[in-house]
Amino acid sequence: MRHADLVRVQSSGCLAHVRALLSSLYPALRRVGEYVLERPGEVIALPIQELAERIGVSEATIVRFTQAVGYSGLRAFKLALVGERAAPAVDIFHEEVRLEDDPLTVSRKVLRSDIQAIADTLAMLETQQLEPALDALHRAQRIEVYGVGSSAPIAVDAYYRLLKIGLPVAVVTDAHMMAVSAASLTPRDVAFIVSHTGRTTETLNAAAKAAEAGATVISLSSHRQTPLDQYATIRLVTADRETAFRTEAMASRIAHLSLIDALCVNLAIRGLDSATAAMERSSTIIEERRVRPR
Questions:
Q1: Which of 3.30.450.40, 3.40.50.970, 3.30.565.10, 1.10.10.10 is the CATH number of 3-92?
Q2: pTM, rounded to two decimals
């Protein structure tokens, strides 16, 4: 294996955080964010005056950008970037797919992008959101999982995993039924909403009705500061890596599935006895459906 092919990933979360916030920023701040993602080395090296000239914004806009993404100013942001770039293999997997690439090269680039998305998601995980999400799911009398479009398969997978560990869960991927289901929830229930963008009309409608009913709303998205946030009690955010010929929504699936997997393992540990019994029942039933070798 060539040195460049070694799978080594690490992320401090700075660039992943910028990427997650990018779509919610005002145009001038977004321009700074795009420059940061494209040329982090220049952002570290250049004084603010030259950096502002290259981006085509004011120095004040650069400072406002760093504050908008959670830092006290440009100096603090540069220090975070330095730490991220000093980590081994940061961003080495985000390679654009080219028309001239052979099938193996394309496959390597896509899989490396997925690996990096998981590493970035790990760096972005926040205890103050993860723990309440686990508490709510563990205590819920009823869990309804919602998702439409490209998020629907993720919602179904979440339902299947939660069901296997014995939790009271259902899944709805039809827009009309999502609204009906959400309106019937109670304060003892959880609406677990999967939405890559956090901006889908059908999903927002279900979230609004669940919140109005008093249910705990857990959102799983790839972006921060979305319209879905106004209804979510608990917000879980993952990272993703878009490549040419592959949209963000497709790339986000890996990170979403991985975080759901982490949630389910945590929940199984919390209710170990009941989860073990439920998994054994599931395994027995599934085994009955398998063709045995002769």
A1: 1.10.10.10
A2: 0.73
